[in-house]
Design brief:
The complex is a heterodimer of chains A (about 230) and B (about 450).
Chain A lengths: L2 H4 L40 H21 L14 H7 L4 H21 L17 H4 L4 H9 L1 E2 L1 E4 L2 E4 L13 H13 L10 H10 L11 E2 H6 L5
Parallel strand pairs in A: 1-4
Antiparallel strand pairs in A: 2-3
Helix pairs in contact in A: 4-7, 6-8, 7-8
Chain B lengths: L1 H28 L12 H33 L6 H23 L13 H23 L8 H26 L5 H35 L6 H14 L13 H13 L1 H15 L3 H6 L1 H24 L1 H7 L3 H31 L6 H33 L6 H7 L1 H38 L7 H10 L1
Helix pairs in contact in B: 1-2, 1-3, 1-16, 1-17, 2-3, 2-4, 2-6, 2-13, 3-4, 4-5, 5-6, 6-11, 6-13, 7-9, 8-11, 9-11, 11-13, 11-14, 13-14, 13-16, 14-15, 14-16, 16-17
The chains are: A mainly alpha (about 230), B mainly alpha (about 450).
Chain lengths: ~230, ~450
């Protein structure tokens, strides 16, 4: 910007910032020059801008209300709610079985065994990490909810004596329900045991048809251990 | 002088960045170009070019302007100029390391954070060196009354270390999982532009325009209003409408993006009211012209960004040249022009020398303005057409790609013009350095450590 390009336009007042060169007393690069620096006027913010701001802010809230899917992390574009997301992603058969088993478990079993599957020390044995639960062959496991269980039992290396026998569910739960809940506990809490099928439950029911389901003949640990699981 | 060092090296990175950008731009319509060199494949050249322009040029030159403004507006000399030069040397070293890292294939893969970790740590460290002395200078100011530009500068000085370190920690040092990475990256890029660069660039705009026309800025309140709106709404966006993230994240991003209309209008109104009675100066004062084009580019880029963020528009424009157009408008139109104006204004005051060639300045202005227009407009139009075709399942993909070629060709031409224009600035700067050495030496008796500092700039 040499002088010839600027000088004609510049008002003569010393406050003009258009000066091409610093004032004489200004040492280069240091800012102690006595040049006038810009100031700002005091014109108020126009009211229409504030109103527009309020209007846009209001719109923004409505927009979020309509397009945020209730702030649920599961909702993604282009769906508007969790319901739509679930409808668009139907569960696989396996997932449906697990979901059913979880529902049954929370309703029937979690009272004693807890949702965490940890049971309650000295009263109700844990399911999480229990060798009885994750045994690959479910022959022993299926018998327990069918008729109940009583007496001393060794779980995860600890002996405990059940103060009350476990309630039998053979009459209340159907084969598919039993299979679902057993599959659930074999795959929840980090378990990776194979699922239990309704056919397997039906087979055990047949084998134990002579045993009453009223709660008068719960299994004992010794009896269960005699049932072969290595096939 | 530290500022001169930052300016000179920034310009060199700009030229390097544009040359790399030119290579990547040519590759888009001539894929055989330099294709046998793995260093110069598109996936490396493009981010290298972006990093050179973003960190090498824009950030560095804007820091230079920021330092000068902080000292000037506070009426103190710059504190710790030696340390700032050291910081500047490390900064340039970090960028060189980073670019070599990207070109050798060691990119981190995150947009605008591509530099390998060693380079980005060094970058952060050198920023700290520069930033601390800028804050100390601000603290030592003798003029206690703050001017508008100083708010923007102070906020910007603190904003970069926050967003940069957060993004580095969450993406490179201990990466977050899954879509969080995309969210953090989008947040960072958006913050870097909409807040950090905007604050720095607008500080310049709000200084140079009233300074040059010799009138006060129209309204302090309007500037304050815009400042808080920018700071509050500017930092939420950056997540695209159809991004595979929880819907509320992208919706919040869109809603706050639309709110950016308010600061945009406030800034535009402020500039327009300040300038309206003095438009005649625009015809003659080159600095004002540069800054004015920069301010218009800023407003335009913000508007295009808001429009592009809307769901219905984003469906068309996302993944097209449209987004590139906005980035280029921000980088070359807004930052490039404001920085050029700033350099043309500040350098004669630092060196006490006139620019050797007015013709070169005019030439730079014409080529740069034309270059930005040629770079941005074809990409905008081409991007929208490309998006419409991409959404039409009848049109085969290859024909969509082919239809963008004429637009890409024009962009390359624009990039070439930018290169030529900025070379003119560089030539002018290189000419002024030896000339001012002699003119400073004449006056060396009464001035302080100038010749030495100029020599530092002269080495580059």
């Amino acid at each position: 910007m040499s002088s010839d390009s600027k000088k004609p336009s510049r008002p003569a007042s010393p406050s003009s910032g258009g000066a091409n060169r610093p004032q004489a007393q200004a040492a280069p690069g240091n800012s102690t020059a006595k040049e006038t620096e810009p100031t700002a006027g005091l014109a108020p913010t126009p009211i229409w801008l504030i109103l527009l701001f309020a209007l846009l802010f209001y719109w923004g809230q409505l927009y979020l209300d309509n397009h945020a899917g209730g702030f649920d992390p599961q909702v993604y574009e282009p769906y508007a709610s969790v319901k739509q997301v679930k409808a668009a992603n139907p569960m696989s058969d396996e997932g449906a079985v697990i979901a059913k088993g979880e529902a049954v478990f929370n309703q029937m079993c979690a009272v004693c065994h807890q949702i965490s599957g940890l049971g309650s020390a000295g009263q109700f044995p844990p399911l999480a990490g229990s060798e009885w639960v994750i045994e690959p062959n479910p022959a022993r496991l299926i018998r327990i909810p069918l008729h109940g269980l009583t007496g001393p039992i060794r779980v995860k290396g600890q002996d405990l004596n059940l103060p009350v026998p476990m309630t039998p569910f053979g009459e209340t739960l159907s084969n598919p329900d039993l299979a679902a809940v057993l599959t659930y506990i074999r795959q929840a809490w980090g378990h990776k045991a194979p699922p239990v099928t309704p056919a397997q439950v039906a087979k055990v029911r047949e084998e134990t048809a002579s045993r009453p389901m009223s709660g008068s003949a719960p299994w004992t640990s010794d009896e269960l251990l005699k049932i072969p699981v290595t096939q | 002088m530290a500022v001169m060092f930052l300016f000179s090296s920034a310009l060199i990175w700009l030229v390097i960045g544009i040359v790399l950008g030119l290579i990547s731009s040519i590759k888009l319509h001539g894929p055989g170009f330099l294709s046998q060199l793995s260093w110069l494949t598109y996936g490396r050249v493009y981010p290298a070019s972006q990093n050179a322009v973003v960190y090498g040029f824009s950030a560095q030159a804007l820091l230079g302007i920021a330092l000068w403004l902080i000292a000037r507006l506070g009426r103190v000399s710059l504190q710790g100029p030696g340390m700032i030069v050291v910081g500047g040397v490390f900064w340039n070293f970090a960028i060189a390391m980073g670019l070599v890292g990207i070109l050798t294939g060691n990119s981190t893969g995150y947009e605008w954070l591509e530099m390998p970790r060693s380079a980005s740590s060094l970058l952060f460290f050198s920023y700290a060196l520069i930033g601390v002395w800028a804050l100390i200078t601000f603290h030592m100011r003798r003029e206690r009354q703050l001017y508008v530009s100083q708010w923007y500068l102070l906020a910007a000085l603190l904003w970069f270390p926050w967003s940069y370190s957060t993004a580095q920690l969450l993406l490179v040092v201990s990466p977050v999982q899954g879509v969080m990475q995309a969210i953090v990256n989008g947040w960072f890029v958006h913050n870097l532009f909409e807040v950090w660069f905007s604050f720095l660039g607008l500080a310049g705009v709000f200084y140079f325009i009233p300074k040059i026309i010799g009138q006060p800025l129209h309204s302090r309140y309007l500037a304050l209003f815009a400042f808080w709106m920018l700071a509050f709404f500017g930092s939420w966006g950056g997540v695209y409408a159809d991004a595979p993230v929880p819907k509320w994240v992208s919706s919040l991003s869109i809603a706050t993006r639309v709110m950016m209309l308010i600061p945009m209008l406030a800034i535009g109104l402020n500039i327009q009211s300040t300038l309206s009675a003095h438009c005649a100066i625009l015809k003659t004062n080159m600095v004002l012209r540069f800054v004015w084009v920069g301010a218009i580019s800023y407003l335009l880029a913000t508007l295009l960004g808001i429009v592009g963020a809307l769901r219905s528009v984003s469906e068309v424009t996302l993944f097209t040249l449209y987004t590139n157009a906005i980035t280029n408008l921000q980088l070359y139109g807004f930052l490039g022009m404001v920085v050029a104006g700033g350099i043309y204004y500040i350098v004669p005051r630092l060196t006490e020398c006139d620019w050797p060639s007015t013709g070169l300045i005019r030439f730079h202005f014409s080529t740069a303005t034309l270059g930005v227009a040629l770079l941005v407009l074809p990409q905008l139009i081409g991007g929208v057409l490309q998006g419409i075709k991409l959404n039409d399942p009848q049109v085969p993909f290859l024909s969509v790609v082919k239809s963008t070629i004429p637009f890409l060709g024009m962009s390359t031409l624009g990039e070439l013009l930018l290169l030529v224009g900025n070379l003119a600035l560089l030539v002018n700067l290189l000419k002024i350095l030896p000339a001012c050495c002699t003119c400073c030496l004449g006056r060396v008796s009464n001035s302080t450590p100038q010749p030495k500092a100029v020599a530092v700039g002269g080495r580059i």
